[in-house]
Design brief:
By secondary structure, this protein is of the alpha+beta class. It is built from five helices and four strands, in the order H-E-E-E-H-E-H-H-H.
Length: 145
């Protein structure tokens, strides 16, 4: 069974390996993994799970609020991930991200990445439980009796 939903893994890995700021967003979770590789004298790269933004411009504004000591970011690569969190790990994308974060030399960013994966898995687990219980979901059609 294919899980890739037409995702171009080569392009995603390229962005992960080269983009200064990017966001991998999970539409089903309404969350995004936001990575800002910029750093200053007092702070290293940032890795955080945040609510999904409505646009890359909105995400750039949120980065400005989160990291006011750094120069304004001018670009944000938005990468949709329409599959399960486990599949970003299985695909090898997460390993490339971990490699890049590790190469930055920031132990805080390495820990933040590990924490982010655990957080994404928890959000996914909660969302699946909500779906099974039917909370916040409505039936579009029902079986005829």
């Amino acid at each position: 069974m294919s899980w890739d939903y037409g995702v171009d893994l080569g392009a995603i890995v390229g962005h992960v390996e080269s983009s200064e700021t990017f966001s991998v967003f999970f539409p089903s979770l309404r969350k995004a993994l936001v990575v800002d590789m910029r750093h200053g004298p007092e702070e290293g790269p940032m890795v955080r799970v945040l609510p999904m933004a409505r646009s890359p411009q909105e995400r750039l504004r949120s980065l400005r609020r989160l990291r006011p000591h750094l120069p304004r970011a001018t670009q944000m690569v938005a990468i949709p991930w329409p599959s399960y969190v486990a599949n970003i790990v299985r695909s090898g994308v997460w390993d490339k991200l971990a490699e890049r974060i590790s190469e930055s030399g920031s132990e805080d960013a390495v820990r933040a990445l590990a924490h982010s994966l655990a957080e994404l898995r928890q959000h996914e687990s909660s969302e699946l439980a909500t779906l099974i219980r039917g909370d916040h979901y409505e039936t579009i059609w029902s079986r005829s009796e």
